[in-house]
Amino acid sequence: MAIPGGDETIAIKGLFTGEGLSWLTTTMGDNYIGFPPLATVLPILLAVGVAEKSGMLAAAVRIAFGKSPKWLLPYAVGFVGVVGSIMADSAFVIIAPLAALVFKAAGRHPMAGLIGGFAATGAGYSTSIVPTSLDALFAGITTSVMETLPNTDYTAVNPVSNYYFNIASSIVLAVIAGFIIDRLIEPNMVRKGVPREYANASSSGLAREYQAPDSPYGDASATSDDSGEDDATEIKAELEPEEKRGLIWSLVAALLLTAVILFSVLIPNSPWRNEDGGFLPESPLLSSIVFIVFAYFMLMGVVYGIVVHTVRSMNDLVKMMSQSIIDMMSFLILAFILGQFIALFNWTGIGSWIAVAGASGLEAIGLTGFAAVIGFMLLASLLNLFIISGSSMWTLMAAVFVPLFSLLGYEPAFIQAGFRVGDSATQVITPLNPYMIVLLGLVRRYEPNAGLGTVISRMFPFVIPFWLAWAVLLGIWFLFDLPLGPGNGIRL
Question: For the region Disordered, what residue ranges are annotated (predicted)?
């Protein structure tokens, strides 16, 4: 099969042949170690683990809620929820119950905060104003599948390749989430007479089953006591003076690190510049994004932990990072499977064949513009109802669609941005989402007879507005050919 852009051809190989079996048995370890996200995701997760387990991230969330006036609370919940992916899956069991608590303290309906916090966290999970491990994961997968098109000249994808788009997405989705919470969810809770107080403790059994043990920020899913009153030790919206000092010093440390980075970047003949003396489209600076993100989270987490005494010795750091490794065991296992899949797709040439055939088919029917991208996003949203793991779904889809759209003239980073839209919006309405049962346990604190259908029905008002707004935003980027991130555009 001939690959566009060059004279060379690629032979389609079969796995179930002598050559194929020999390839698999001799390269299995290399396929795993060579899975690109391993090198980018693991360091970031280690650093984020320290920032989380020291209590720094939870304290930042609490101060964001605590400083918000009553009228601004829905938008604060929307913003914190949308950017909550910094904390990975922990966001689902921290943000929603904390939002309910601060809503109640402000005299607003706690159920609105609970539902809104969960919806914003889930439906906006693929975006954030800060590069996260998810950005590194997506970038690694995107880069690996482009090996099927060796003749394609494209801009390298890194964890900040969608950064500008992510910032805009976070702001837009936060505003939309806040509006929905304020104008739709809370009035609906009041109109239906949903209780504002906990029911009997015996009705909160599901919540007990899904607790976040040994958390420095308290038990996000603990239940009320027998009297039905709030457990004062459950979650504290107000920061202790020591925690405030910890945040201040961690911010000072971040500013000092920023000054060091700026100095090292701006000096003449900086080693972080490329051969032309610049930074775009590729440079050692952009290749160091994983290190920079690691340094920020690690430094801020350590400084905060020292101030609040959650980090007393190197042994505490080792324990936090060890727990992070335990938390990511499922990813390490999944990476083994995905690494074999990506390598298999590249070796057999099937990915190249599908990409060439698919691109030719779309060109034949004239479907090569933004309408094709819309179709791709709709497919991602549909598959998201059945494949909850974003890394698994992106591996499956990227192997086909990234090369396909590249042959149509689009940068891999642009298709990755399109996947973000489809991947998140429908995540909060699928019963296969394991955190839906966690939310159900929290809802049953107030409504003992609530079922999964009740929870899902309250998520629906967020799904279509999020999807449409995100798609329109991507359409604006497409129409005006705006940069998605440093050095990454729309078209090849």
Answer: 205-232
